[in-house]
Write a structure and sequence with these properties.
With 304 residues, the chain is mostly helical. It is 70% helix and 6% strand. A hairpin with a 7-residue loop joins strand 3 (108-111) and strand 4 (119-123). Helix 1 packs antiparallel against helix 8 (194-241), helix 5 crosses helix 8 (194-241) and helix 8 (194-241) packs across helix 9. The chain is elongated. 39% of the residues are buried.
Length: 304
């Protein structure tokens, strides 16, 4: 458990550092191609932070509304309240609010910008189809997302992805509109000699290729971070419950259930403990999935 937690934290940190380095590289090309200096980066950051700020403080309300979730009382689902109470104490967190989705498909998610505003939401199908230790494993997984501040990390990654998308778009538009470097810089280099012009031409081509591919690269990094946080939440859940087979059994039941979760959509699918839309097959498709393959998650739990 300790090895899994440490490994996934380091991998998450490495992906974020790569993302930051990638933004600096893209910014250098952006400055070279457009001649905007650091103003473009500042403007892109302000726009991305503004959009993320609104989402950060309203995402829990939006997600619960989209999912048609409702708050529940302890009298209605006492076993859910008991599990959440016990695991919140074990995790050293304030008790999250409990919500349910009236749907027979088993699944669950957590939302909220910090532990003080956290929500754990489960479907009625999850409460009906899982036993006590399996339910504890699922709730511990969601509690771990809260404890690890995964909503905050994902918001930061979304901001960085937004910066990359804006810089990429502006670079391509600047080139198409005949921006500063393309119009003035190459002309000067041609008059000064072929060596400088050739080098500048290579830089421009590399910059444009990077601009075209950077939104895809940013998306792949964002999804990779999401997958690492799922592994981390699994390992942290095993630490909380001290019983990895409980969560492994729950993952088998949830992934094996064929009932569709009607409340889920592409905007919210990444929040759930198991992707409610489809199981991703193949190495290439896994790159574009927010969740690691269930088989890999269960194998990691079994090694504990």
């Amino acid at each position: 458990m300790y090895e899994q937690i440490s490994r996934n934290k380091w991998k998450s940190a490495g992906l974020v550092l790569f993302f930051v380095a990638f933004i600096f590289l893209l910014t250098w090309f952006f400055q070279y191609l457009t001649g905007w200096g650091t103003g473009g980066l500042v403007l892109a950051a302000v726009i991305s932070f503004g959009m993320a700020f609104v989402g950060y403080y309203t995402s829990d309300k939006i997600v619960l509304a989209i999912s048609r979730a409702r708050p529940v009382t302890q009298d209605e689902f006492p076993h859910l309240y008991n599990v959440v109470d016990g695991l919140a104490i074990a995790a050293g967190l304030p008790k999250p609010r409990c919500y349910v989705i009236e749907d027979s498909a088993p699944n669950a998610f957590a939302t909220g910008r910090n532990p003080q505003n956290a929500v754990i939401c489960v479907t009625t199908g999850l409460l009906d189809k899982l036993n006590r230790v399996e339910l504890e494993g699922v709730v511990a997984h969601e509690m771990s997302h809260i404890k690890n501040y995964d909503v905050r990390l994902q918001t930061m990654v979304v901001v960085m992805a937004g910066i990359v998308a804006l810089l990429s778009d502006w670079m391509l538009r600047s080139f198409l509109w005949g921006g500063g470097r393309r119009r003035g810089g190459i002309g000067r280099s041609r008059s000064g000699g072929s060596g400088g012009g050739g080098a500048q031409g290579v830089i421009i081509v590399v910059g444009l290729v990077l601009a075209a591919l950077s939104p895809l690269i940013a998306q792949l990094v964002r999804l990779a971070v999401s997958r690492k946080r799922e592994f981390l939440a699994d390992a942290s859940a095993a630490m909380l419950t001290r019983y990895p087979p409980g969560l492994a059994s729950a993952l088998r039941k949830i992934s094996g259930d064929r009932e569709p979760l009607e409340a889920a959509n592409k905007a919210t699918a990444h929040l759930y403990i198991v992707n409610p839309l489809k199981n991703v097959k193949g190495s290439f498709n896994k790159l574009f999935s927010t969740h690691p393959p269930i088989e890999e998650r269960i194998a990691a739990l079994e090694k504990m």
